[in-house]
Every structure is written in structure tokens, then in C-alpha cells.
Amino acid sequence: MGEKRIEIVTESMFYTLMAFLAGECSGVEAAAFAEQLTDGRVHLGAATIYTILGRFESEGVIQEVRREGRRRIYTLTDKGRQMYEKERLRMEACLADAEKAKRLLSPFE
User: Fold this and answer.
1) Calpha distance 107→41 (Å, rounded)
2) Gap between the terminal Cα atoms of the chain
3) Among 6, 32, 24, which residue's Cα sits nearest to residue 84?
4) Cα–Cα distance, 17 to 3 (Å, whole number)
5) Per-residue pLDDT for 80 more than 90?
6) Helical H runs in the chain?
7) 9-60, pLDDT tens digit by residue?
8) Angle at 53 between CA 47 and CA 56, to 5 degrees
9) Rounded distance between C-alpha atoms, residue 103 and residue 47, angstroms
10) How many domains, in total, are found in the chain?
11) Domain that holds residue 100
């Protein structure tokens, strides 16, 4: 039985995708990007980032472009860019709905 396809993009996965938008990077660099961007709110430990990279690589979301010693450098594929954009749009819709709900519910507070 094969591994289940990625259907839900977690916060950790989203920030990993975002790191690759800027270009090629390693797992350590992607984790550092997420931590810096979120002022430490999102911390991707070694097990988390390498699990994500493994899934992304097996699903064709990223691809290895070279190795520098033990470091593996990846790039985002078209599938990865589409995954990021789809998730970004989904989150924007959720935020818009939250704003709508806030306006609708404010008379009841």
C-alpha cells in the first residue's frame, strides 16, 4: 500500500513551501526561514523538516538539484508552486470569512 497523497497542508508545510519560493535551499535553510519570518512562532525541528522534505520530494512538490557535502539542496516544482498558491488562496478566503463573521456577530456581543 502506497503513502497517502498530501491533502492537507499543515502550517509547517506551508512555511516550508514559502521558503522555497525564494529559490533553492536546504532543509536547514527552510527551517531557519520559517523561524525568522514568524519571529520564532514556527519552529521546524529536524524530524519535522526532514519528514516534510521527504513527503514533498516523493510527491513531486520539490526536487533535489544538488548536494553540497551532506546538505541536499532542493527547488520548488510547478506542482509545489500550485500547492502553495492553492493554500494561500484558501487561507485568504478563511480570513475574509472571519471578518464577515465578526461583522455579523458584533451586534450579539
Assistant:
1) 33
2) 51
3) 6
4) 20
5) yes
6) 11-21, 27-37, 46-59, 78-105
7) 999 999 999 999 989 999 999 999 999 999 999 999 999 999 999 999 999 9
8) 140
9) 41
10) 1
11) 11-105
pLDDT confidence of residue 1? 46
Instruction: Name residue 73's beta-bridge partners.
Output: 66
**Is residue 78 in some structural domain?**
yes
Q: Which three cell numbers stand for residue 78?
A: 510547478
Alpha carbon distance 4, 46 (integer Å): 22
CATH for 42: 1.10.10.10
Residue with more model confidence, 63 or 103: 63
How many degrees, rounded to 5, is the angle at CA 79 between CA 47 and CA 52?
5
- Of 50, 95, 92, 85, which is closest to residue 70 (Cα–Cα)? 50
CA nearest 9: which of 68, 56, 67? 56
Name the pTM for this structure.
0.86
Arithmetic mean of pLDDT, 92-104: 91
